Amino acid sequence: MDRLSQLPEALLLRIMSLLPAKDVVATMVLSKQWQLLWMLVPKLVYDDSYQDIEYGRFSRFVDRSLTLHEAPVLDTLHLKLGKTSCGSGDIRVWIKAVDKRCLRELIVEFDSNNSSVVLPVSLYTCCRMLVTLKLNNAVLVDVTSSFSFPSLKNLSLVSMKYPGDELIKTFLSSCPVLEDLVVKRCLDDNVTIFNVRVSSLKFLVLHNKGDPDSGFVIDTPSLECLDIFDNSGEFCVIENDMTKIVKADVCFDNANAQQLLGSISSVKRLYLCVPFSKDAYPVGSVFHCLVSLTLCTCETEWLNLLMCMLRDSPKLRALKLIQDHSFRSESRPCWNEPSAVPECLLTSLETLEWVKYEGKEEEKELAAFILRNGNCLKRVTISSKSTDLKEKYEILKELSLLSRRSPTCQIAFN
Ligand SMILES: *[C@@H]1O[C@H](CO)[C@@H](O)[C@H](O)[C@H]1NC(C)=O
Ligand SMILES: *[C@@H]1O[C@H](CO)[C@@H](O)[C@H](O)[C@H]1NC(C)=O
Ligand SMILES: *[C@@H]1O[C@H](CO)[C@@H](O)[C@H](O)[C@H]1NC(C)=O
Ligand SMILES: *[C@@H]1O[C@H](CO)[C@@H](O)[C@H](O)[C@H]1NC(C)=O
């Protein structure tokens, strides 16, 4: 312990920031130096499941340590709560205790899916310096007074319940510099239209959970990264093209897929799984920046979608096909030789990676087509889905006999 005490104070504080609050406060008994030091730790994590402590003691401990804690800046307050006895009142007191401390990061998470702890109204008005706010599994209430989060950049709302659509609008419009938003919805969240209209937003994660009568409206013209997951057919309306988009992960079983894809046609790296939407392709779009495409092959439509994407992605360099979900349809896609060779095959496509290749007719045709026309192909990597060695061997033999246009193309099998 003496050797520890000789470390520079700044380093000790960093080490202590990584400990749960209970251990941090435990350092008080170690020595005089430590007794003063813990009060300066800039990050406090309170976990009510820690060492099975009884809730009353836990809450008194949080009260006292927050009152004693003296750092002028408290960067992070992280509350991990699971005990049913935790109520709104406690959280109100703790938020009040840190109100004057320039708190930058506040995380309040309840670990049961089913928690219905109502967050105090003071959440909206305290902590004007907050940069990050993460809430998990709790209930937000309506607030009549106006509020704002002038510094908030990262906001995460996971499995939250709301007092209705209006609060979300008010909340997001009171975050003028928000850059990063994560929304994972749960059933019964009491929201019909989740409006995401944030002109400063750069990163957006939207996961839906499956109420077919609800959906999203997205208006985020500065977005750079999108991760959208919706397999329940909810609606999703895009109000503005996202011309700054760089990366998108789209797993979308939704009638609005076409509009979504059309609005992200400037994307550079795209993951796409649009299983059931027959008309997902935004005819007339050109993916003029797309260099890397990963396409999920879990439904009949994948082949058609892929051929459209190849046709309209003149700079594509890397193509990956992967069966991320088990093949769900009875009917297999049908190969139609395109009337023209896509430009990317002639001038840019360098790698093809195919995960869970099955050797079905249309797969063979596609592989043959790409090898026959891929002028710049350098590497083709195929992993077969089959575990049967003999079958695997047959698949590989067939592939290795295909003619290749690019003399330097290497085929690797996994
Ligand atoms: C919480 O939700 C997860 C996933 O939705 C589920 O696997 C888990 O069983 C749930 N736990 C409880 C306590 O309901
Ligand atoms: C969820 O909450 C409801 C009502 O509060 C309760 O009846 C149910 O048992 C809870 N389920 C779980 C998994 O905790
Ligand atoms: C906010 O989110 C972005 C992107 O996820 C991340 O890079 C950044 O570190 C986050 N900032 C804070 C303060 O958590
Ligand atoms: C659900 O939202 C409506 C408004 O859309 C509101 O009147 C109602 O009180 C909300 N219910 C709950 C439980 O918050």
TrEMBL record:
Q: Which SMART domains match?
A: FBD
What highest taxon heads this organism's lineage? Eukaryota
Name the Gene3D superfamilies on file: 1.20.1280.50, Ribonuclease Inhibitor (3.80.10.10)
Every copy of the F-box domain together lies at: 1-53
* Protein name from the UniProt record: Probable FBD-associated F-box protein At1g32375
Organism of origin is: Camelina sativa (False flax)
